[in-house]
Amino acid sequence: MKINTSFFPLKIFLVGILCLQFQLGISQEQKNSPLYKTIMTKDSLLFNIGFNTCDISVSESLCSDQLEFYHDKNGLSNKTDFVKTMKNGLCASPSTYQSRRELIDESTKIYPLYKNGVLYAALQNGIHYFYENKTNKGEPFLKENEKLVGKARFSHLWVLENNDWKLKRILSYDHQPTNSVEEKSALFDNEQETEKWLKENNVPTLGIGIISDGKLKQVKVFGKLKRNVSAPYNTIWNVASLTKPVTAVVTLKLISQGKWDLDEPLSKYWTDPDIAKDPYLKLLTTRFVLSHQTGFPNWRSNNESKKLDFKFKPGTQYQYSGEGFEYLRKALEKKFHKTLDQLASELIFEPLKMNDSQLVWSDKIDLSRYAMNYDNQGNAYEPTKNKTANAADDLLTTIEDYGNFLCSVMNSEGLSPKVFEEMISHQISTKKDKYFGLGFEIYDLGNQDYALSHGGADKGVQTIVFMLPKTKQGLIIFTNVDDGYKVYGKTIQHYLGEIGNRIISIETK
User: Fold this and answer.
1) d(Cα 305, Cα 70) in Å, to the nearest integer?
2) SS3 for 3-26, per residue?
3) CB-CB contact of 392 with 322 (8 Å)
4) Where does the Beta-lactamase-related domain start and stop, copy by copy (predicted)?
5) Do the beta carbons of residue 280 and residue 245 sit within 8 Å?
6) Are strands 229-230 and 215-226 parallel, antiparallel or unpaired?
7) Is the separation of the CB atoms in 415 and 219 below 8 Å?
8) Which of 210, 214, 401, 505 could form a Cys-Cys staple with 472, CB 3.0–4.6 A?
9) Residues in the chain with pLDDT < 70?
10) Burial 321-354 (b: 16+ CB within 10 A, else e)
């Protein structure tokens, strides 16, 4: 049963707890303390007995009559509703999904609360997994057949009532779906554990964005910007080639508005002098730029002549090319008489309130939040300070800004149905089960499921993003070191589960 109510009481509860901790300077209980052991015993009774075996009487006896249960998906419940939900849902007698809760090791923190020096309550924070197993009535719960389906955070307020510990407030939040059994560790959930892991891998800073239900639900930033300065959640990163999806979506939005043509020759608006007399010039289109079929090298500077040329006929092969995106930029700017950064601001940055995103280096950048880039020996690179926008490289952004951008793309905001379908279609194969669409790589996951992705790599930059449009999930990983890709695998597996393993399998074939 859901109760429609204001969340004002929840805010009061949270603020009250924070104020108490601040005023009293409360530190968490040590694991060997009597209070820690007592609360963990209550936790075990509540979940290992009450929840996992559906012994409702145990759960009921542990809850205060004034119980308030705040759930980020089901609203506010009282004790009567809580017990009724267990009886009619989780513990209903016919064939149903049985559930099991498992506390994540090392995630629990317990804080004592005092009044006039007398202990009266304890706040328990933690993270737990939930498993499901479909069984028939009378059949045993088979752990080997269960499936990990979710993870969530919780805060429990235990209060002494008549010298007995009762659960008076429950906050259940940050629910995230999962796809397989994740690694059982505190990594990514415990800051100290994650910082230690990053130090072992010589990664100065790691940023993670988690998307679920088509929205950016969480931003995590670990590591240091410099000695003794922790990286804030709104750290500013150079994300290298993650600039290309922004340029692509600017163009796709213009196509959706009928102001640009996907298959019109770019020579109508721009011709590079290096290829002015090449017969392939008229074949160059936006479609081939966004799917990396231009025939151009990645950069003309890689050529001995330092001039732009075609390595093959456009539309016949795949060749990743930053030059193609720069060619598109010049064509767009010629037609619309605006710079790419102006177009990006109008079509993406301003509507999505991406206030920390820009294509041109300026005094507006908050250098105190900027993640310097490093080689794998710990030497810093000088920041790239573009005076004009580069369509393929050097976007400055935050996890939050880029996460909101990906959500808008996944939700097809500003893109017509036809253009969105073109974007996610297999324009060209790059390897088995992997393709390029328009602006994004596509992983074929089987069963008609797919993931959209793009990466960025430059001096001191390793970044990658994934979107799962069918399940509305996504993952963002930013690092600021030459070999930051070393932490991709574990991060992808942790947050994307079986789908992450499938992506890694495709990539490593």
Assistant:
1) 66
2) ECCCCHHHHHHHHHHHHHHHHHCC
3) yes
4) 199-484
5) no
6) antiparallel
7) no
8) 214
9) 1-27, 93-98, 105-106, 134-145, 178-186
10) bbbbbbbbbbbbbeebeebbbebbbebbbeebeb
Instruction: Give the Cα separation of 325 and 294 in Å (integer).
Output: 10
142: which residues sit within 8 A by CB, 6+ positions away? Answer: 133, 135
Amino acid code (one letter) for 350: E
pLDDT for position 201: 92
**pLDDT of res. 145:** 64
Cβ count near 156 (within 10 Å): 20
Whole-model pTM above 0.70?
no
CA atoms lying within 13 Å on the CB side of residue 215: 5
Distance CA 408, CA 406 (A): 5
SS3 state at 192: helix
The identity of residue 266, as a single letter, is L
How far is it, in rounded angstroms, from Cα 199 to Cα 189? 16
Total Cβ atoms within 10 A of residue 16: 12
CB 199 within 8 A of CB 462: no
**Distance (Å, whole) CA 358 – CA 389:** 9
Task: Give pLDDT, residue 316.
Answer: 97
d(CA 223, CA 232): 9
Work out the number of other CB atoms within 10 angstroms of the CB of residue 469.
Answer: 18
SS3 content of the chain, % helix, strand, coil (to 5): 35, 30, 35
Torsion of CA 157, 160, 161, 162, to 10 degrees: 170
Which stretch of DSSP H or E encloses residue 217?
strand 215-226
Please, which residues have CB within 8 angstroms of residue 389's CB and are 6 or more apart in sequence? 329, 339, 340, 341, 344, 359, 360
Q: Give how far the C-alpha of residue 464 lies from the chain's centroid of Cα atoms, to the nearest Å.
A: 10
Would you say 295 and 319 are in contact if contact means Cβ atoms under 8 Å apart? Answer: yes
Predicted pLDDT at 420: 98
Task: Determine contact, residues 416/222, Cβ cutoff 8 Å.
Answer: no
Closest CA to 204 of 478, 465, 12, 455: 478
